[in-house]
Amino acid sequence: MINRRVLSIWFPRLAAERHIRHDPNLGTVPFAVVRDSGQAQVLASLSPLAQAAGLYAGQPLRDAHAMSADLLTRVSTPHAEAAFLGVLHRWAGKFSPWVAREEPDALVIDLTGCAHLFGGEEQLAQQVEQDCTDLGLTVQLGIADTLGGAWALARFGGGQGRAHHRNGDAIDQEARATRSRAGKRRHWERGGAAPTRATAPARGHTRIAAPGETYKALAPLPIAALRLEDHTMAQLSRLGLRRVSDLVEQPRAGLARRFGRGLVARMDQALGALPEPVSPAPPPDRFATRLSLPDPIGLEDDVMAAIDRMLPRLCAALNKKGRGARTLRFEAYRADDTMQWMNVTLARPSDDPDHIRPLLGLKVADLDAGYGIDMLRLEAVVHEPLHLRTVPGHLEATEAGRARRAGAVPGSLDRLIGRLGTRLGTDAITRIQPADSHIPEKTSLAVAAAWSDPVRHWPQRDKLRPLLMWPPEPVMVADVPRLPATFRWRGRDHHVHSTRGPERIAPEWWLDDPAWRSGQRDYWEVVTKQGHRLWLFYAHGGVKSSGWFCQGSFA
Known about the structure:
Blueprint: E1 6-10, H1 14-22, E2 31-37, E3 40-46, H2 48-52, H3 61-67, E4 72-75, H4 78-92, E5 99-102, E6 106-110, H5 121-134, E7 140-144, H6 147-156, H7 175-189, E8 206-208, H8 214-218, H9 230-238, H10 244-248, H11 252-259, H12 261-271, E9 288-297, H13 300-320, E10 323-334, E11 339-350, H14 353-364, E12 373-385, H15 394-405, H16 412-424, E13 430-434, E14 444-448, E15 468-474, E16 486-489, E17 492-505, E18 521-528, E19 533-539, E20 547-553
Parallel strand pairs: 2-4, 7-8
Antiparallel strand pairs: 1-6, 1-7, 2-3, 5-6, 9-12, 10-11, 10-12, 13-14, 15-20, 16-17, 17-18, 18-19, 19-20
Helix pairs in contact: 6-12, 11-12, 13-14, 14-16
């Protein structure tokens, strides 16, 4: 039977090194990423120079600036850090198909049956460290038979990680050292140099527990290596239990009664008595291609020639997965380290280069080449499956054949919507669709044309509705249910020639519509002697007062 082997990859400076990768100058000074904690800001991730200056994670920002005046900071962006971890998730797929994320800064890989492909676990760990060094990332690794064991070795192997708690009995023994540290603190607070700490090595450290020797590797580690809660570790430390071996030697029943079953479960998971599977989440499909140019370009024809080389590769990748691009992002990287990007949205998902190219051509005309473009990138940021589209039946096929014989090009409406949306914006192109409501102004909806299908057959209504409708406008007439022979509207007097009605419409009782707080309405079709055909109604009154109003015109 093959022993299960798990690799834990921890990036202790993921957030800070993400910024350093974008701006290498941040790596030459103390730098940290800060996050909000209550009413204050604290350090969340530090660069090696910031840690060497004596700063630590969780430290208030004001104290950090007091210790290091040249400290540079950036605000934490969890969504960007999660996206960066997703990129590393895809990278880790080269070592095993069984990869899972541990938010916010770690990955777990099930290496069972995979290590021999890289020459063994030592060589695989060296390859992981080398890749991370090339990416400019600090990494710490741990390999064991269990997920909990690998997690503990990655964070606490080799004496690294958080210090364990102290109890009151250690105060007398450490009083001299405490006074010494206090004196040094007063020295640098009064203008002296801040204390320095040894900088962690650029390359990570690896701790590998041999198969079947997980307990031997975990025994000397602090209890924090068991992924316990803070209050549980504090209680255990007060009892003098500071190492994993101290806990394992205690009666399990007593530990479960005093600290709950969670403590025992964490011990069993780390030592392999309780299974803890690795639950991989496959990385999302990403469709992108780029083209690096030997010399900067600036002409529109050159950019389109580059797109002609990139677009077929992107569409081939989409077609292989049965996907169609809905929104594409086109990025142009200039020679002066600046970048311009633009989005193109299609009315229907497509993997046809001939359909996408004209839309990109409309955007390329607005591209500013600056000092020249040396790299182009094209990505399908929104894509949809193509196989879910319904295959037309005999009736639809007959109608399509008639349209082709009449000269209509299939998909011409979608192409038109795409071209107009590229210039005006996709949301600006709308179409009207019927809605299920008896309220006159709610019988239709305006929806985005690119995200909806046309309605071929509108529902037949037994009641006639005006061609033009507007918000109700008051009519100057006596407040009685029957319309008199003369009324005044929009500053003019109108004489009634004929009427038809009334049609009573009640408000939607399940909604509180402010426009219908005047109660139920009696609608009349009124033809005036001046030739107007108006739609008037009498509101019987409710929360608002009653009266006559005009809401539409039939012609």
